[in-house]
Amino acid sequence: MSYLHHSYPFEDDFYDEIDDPEFDGVIEDIAVDEYEMLTKVTDTSAAQARKGKDIQGIPWEMLNINRDSYRITRLEQYRNFENILVSGETVDKDCSKVEKSGKYYDFFYNTRMVKPTILHFQMQLRNLVWATSKHDVYLVSNYSIMHWSSLSGNLSEIINFAGHVAPTERCPGNLLEGFSQTQISTLAVKDNFLVAGGFQGELTCKRLDKKGVSFCTRTTHDDNAISNAVEIYESLSGATHFIASNNDSGVREYDIEKFQLLNYLQFPWPVNHTSISPDRKIMTVVGDNLDGLLVDPQNGKTIATLVGHKDYSFASAWHPNGHTFATGNQDKTCRVWDARNVSSPIAVLKNNLGASRSIRFSSDGQFMVVAEPADFVHVYNTKANYEISEEIDFFGEISGVCLSPDDECMYVGIWDRTYASLLQYNRRHSYHYLDSYF
Fold first, then answer.
1. What does residue 326 show for φ and ψ, rounded to 5 degrees?
2. CA angle 279, 283, 289 (to 5 degrees)
3. Residue 29 has pLDDT above 50, yes or no
4. DSSP code at position 105
5. What radius of gyration, in Å, describes the C-alpha atoms of the chain?
6. Which residues pair with 275 in a beta bridge?
7. What's the pLDDT score for residue 407?
8. Are 161 and 146 in contact (CB under 8 A)?
9. pLDDT above 80: residue 131
10. In the predicted model, is pLDDT for residue 403 greater than 90?
11. Which Pfam families does this UniProt record tie to the protein (predicted)?
């Protein structure tokens, strides 16, 4: 990924306009106590949403712009980050027709206690929210990794990287002196393990059932060392491994239980994301290159080249059937492929605002979730050939999206100065009457 620093074209959104004294009609027309009420946001339940409350608690009735009008403004003014100019405008003719009539996940709760964040100078990385069950969510909030229990409503700190973090276990390769003030760029949590990647190549591993941090290492001393993505998976032997994609153009495979580096692969460009197939025989590799790759994860040899995207890619994921996979790109598309024939994609799915920053397939394979950088999450029906989707919309930058292992819950982290929160959606079933009890 390219360094963004302060050049990211992030437009002033309507929440900034609330704080702008020149904003026509809002601040001038309300008293101080009304302004405090305007920015005092509370949680929202499914029952409250059904009665008309905005899911994010935005008091549209007090503003001089309604939700529909502001949506039009956002669609017109949001500027997608591109490495290749106007890449998002060149793919329209290739895009699949999608009917946005699906109803797969229902809004359940929005908690304001949780404050997801992303690093302002590397806003291309959005894998900062993970669920280990339908009630347990891990996310990045400033320098901390937090745990949210939707069952108890309790928020707790798991690791605080603002100070000094050092490992408690001794093993070869463990950086016993640890790290100080680590800026978290990416996160992965699965089963009993948590892996956090840092802006300077740091990798920190933690066993969730033990106190402290188990393992720390710095993957590289390269100046361009951002840990772009981490994926935890079970190897063919049954051991838990993870792969780390780095801006130094390297991909590293670790045994997470032994904290041992198993493999290192080098590519000709910075690697933004990798994902491994269910049979562990193929790995997708995407990064600062128009074309993606399918490679042998053992030796890095190219199996196939993925041609079609118009910009750099930052997301990939495999369908549990083992041959379907998807790639997400800054050209505002998600492309779905069949590994048995990658001459052309199965589907080219166009976003509304910007890049496909995060992709998740449900464990049963029925849905594919695609997150844009802001405002929109799309849930595609894979059994309908990706021609039907549910479009979930809100306002704010997306820090991450995840499905619980049983696919029952979907969580979306929203990063915003005023309306930061964690959205929970529950898989739609026939027994909606249960919502009335919450």
1. -135, 150
2. 160
3. no
4. E
5. 21
6. 284
7. 98
8. no
9. yes
10. yes
11. WD40
| Cα angle for residues 297, 303, 304 (degrees, 5° grid) | 125
- Residue 12: is its pLDDT beyond 70? no
How many alpha carbons fall within 13 Å on the CB side of residue 415? 23
* Per-residue pLDDT band at 263 (split at 50, 70, 90): very high
Q: Confirm or reject CATH 3.40.605.10 for domain 87-437, answering yes or no.
A: no
Please state, as a whole number, how many other Cβ atoms lie within 10 Å of the Cβ of residue 15. Answer: 16
The answer to whether 318 and 337 have CB atoms below 8 angstroms apart is no
Contact 363, 320 (CB under 8 A): yes
Nearest to 418 by CA among 47, 18, 10: 18
pLDDT of 163 > 50? The answer is: yes
Q: What's phi and psi for 371, nearest 5 deg? A: -105, 130
In this prediction, residue 72 carries a pLDDT of 98
Find, among 310, 352, 406, the residue nearest to 82 by Cα: 310
Residues 6+ apart with CB under 8 A from 284: 273, 274, 275, 276, 292, 293, 294, 306, 316, 318, 325, 327
> pLDDT grade, residue 173 (50/70/90)?
confident
Q: What is the pLDDT of residues 331-359, one digit of tens each?
A: 999 999 999 999 999 999 999 999 999 99
Q: Is the pLDDT of residue 235 over 50?
A: yes
Give per-residue pLDDT as tens, 42-92: 899 999 999 999 999 999 999 999 999 999 999 999 999 999 988 888 777
Give the torsion through C-alpha atoms of 120, 122, 124, 129, to 10 deg: -70
Cα(185)–Cα(176) distance, integer angstroms: 21
Query: What one-character DSSP code corresponds to residue 123?
Result: T
Question: What are phi and psi for residue 292, nearest 5 degrees?
Answer: -95, 175
Helix (H, G, I), strand (E, B) or coil at 353: coil
Find the angle CA(229)-CA(320)-CA(403) to the nearest 5 degrees: 60
Alpha carbons 352 and 268: distance in angstroms, whole number: 31
Residues 243 and 251: beta-carbon distance below 8 Å: yes
Q: How would DSSP label each residue in 371-431?
A: E-SEEEEEEEEGGGTT-BEEEEEEEEEEEEEEE-TTSSEEEEEEE-TTT-EEEEEEE--S-
